[in-house]
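Page 42, continued from yesterday. The earlier attempt failed because a stray header line got pasted into the input along with the sequence. Redoing it now with the clean sequence only.
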Amino acid sequence: MKDNTESKVAKAKAQKAKSPTDSTDKSDEFLQKVTDWMNKLGSHFSKIALKLFYTDYRGVVATDDIAKGEVIVFVPKEGMITLSLAKSGRIGKKLVEKGVSMVYPNNSFLSSYVLSEMSNPTSKWKLFFEALPKSVSNFPIFFGPEENNILKGSEFLEHVKELRLDMEKDYKRICEAAPEFASFGKLEDFMKTRALVNSRIFGTKIDGVEDDSIVPLADMFNYKHPSNMTHWTYSHEKKGFIVETTESIKAGEEIFVSYGNKPNTSYFQFYGFVIPNNEKDEISINVSIDTNDPLKQQKEDILENAKYPKKMKVAANTDDTKFTLLISYLRFVCFQGTEEQLNKIKEEFDKEDIKKASSSDAKIKGIPFISVQNEETVLKIVKIQCEKLLAKYAESLEEGLIKLNSSNLTFN
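This time it went through. Structure tokens are written below.
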């Protein structure tokens, strides 16, 4: 799935004259070639066409008026690069047989398959690989010093650092299990492929089994927030991946799909863009039990049994489950009273809704209000933690927005 935001399009327009590229005619001719290849695989595309808008910005447009409820894309299972296919490939088989443990198994299985197939001149997917973007500079793991400097203070920099280390671990483990994999590409090649694969994964259920898949052509759709134009899924009845319209679309309009409801850290990591005022945005807060707390040991034992994380993510939306979970956690951590009273509160941790709270859709009540003093302490901790995170930034939000409107920035 291709990366896109309105601001990025605006920058692309501004840079059009600065970025020499192949002629539009040649690009459109190649995109038609890809479409013809997909048709031979049994795919069907109704009233749509691929279009090159600007350098590194492609998309799907309506060639005719489209009514609500029309299936505009059908890609058969044979035209999809599925997780099960990747596991049956020459590298995937070895990884499965040897039970290789990877940090990001699904992504690494798909990436190892794609990278190994890229070296095969007669690969079934040759045209699809040729259609993939040549540049991955919009992905944060490939940012240079200038761009990283703009992110200074953000916890995302540490996240990117960890991501690179995790990718390196997966690459090494793949090479240890299948030494020939190193001949298909070095670490940087693997990372580039991982970035392209990550931005094109559709979470599907095929034959009753959860299966991450890369769907050629469907990955050309861009994202716009909010995206209500289409719905995509794997159809068991049709035995393939479909994209269906959920509203009427006029001829000439660009058609968008949903990339899911995610925080900006995920959009940024996987697609290279962010959404302004994203209610799913979140930050990480570390909260520990006071070393002088007389109930410190009992609290730690209860939290460990409940498998609560030591670092909690908090969503910007206070109605989000993660925020409810944080406040519950802090009410417990900050509780002052007897051990008997603590054990009564402990019962809340044994409830099923708390244990399932890792799901963003889980509806939890959490630990209820305990006392005014407890609530004041909880909110004070949240305030202090947020102030600490803000203090890491070298400039204010207002100064950052002014910089974003500057013409001296890179495309990213």
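Notes: Residues 156-177 form the longest helix (22 residues).
Reminder to self: strip header lines before submitting.
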